Amino acid sequence: MHPDQIKQLILAGMACEHLELDGDGQHFEAIVVSAEFVGKNRVQRQQHVYQTLKDKLATGELHALSFKTLTPEEWSAKRG
Questions:
Q1: Which of 11, 58, 60, 68 is deepest in the core (most CB within 10 A)?
Q2: What does the buried/exposed string (b/e) look like for 5-16 if buried means 16 or more CB atoms within 10 Å of the residue's CB?
Q3: What pTM was estimated for this model as a whole?
Q4: Burial readout 27-37 (b: 16 or more C-beta within 10 A, e: otherwise)
């Protein structure tokens, strides 16, 4: 899959304030910033993102994605 395809799937499934995605066609890394993560733990946040990609994961079209999930406040603090 192309990184832009993955971005579109995530954006179609949830509201993101910031989304970065990089990859080589096999392995992908993302930073997902969303207010939808407020009040959720790390596992719940990951499940939320995976839900947007479940069809591609189920078919094996997408199989290697690592990501960081942050609220807008966490993203602002991280950027300093």
A1: 68
A2: ebbebbeebbeb
A3: 0.90
A4: ebebbbbbebb
pLDDT at 23 over 80: yes
Model pLDDT, residue 27 = 86
Residue 5 three-state SS: helix
Domain definitions of the chain by residue range: 3-79
| Strands (DSSP E) found in 4-53 | 18-23, 28-33
Q: What are phi and psi of 66, to 5 degrees?
A: -115, 145
CATH superfamily, domain 3-79, is BolA-like (3.30.300.90)
Name residue 70's amino acid.
Answer: L
Structure tokens at 51: 């839900």
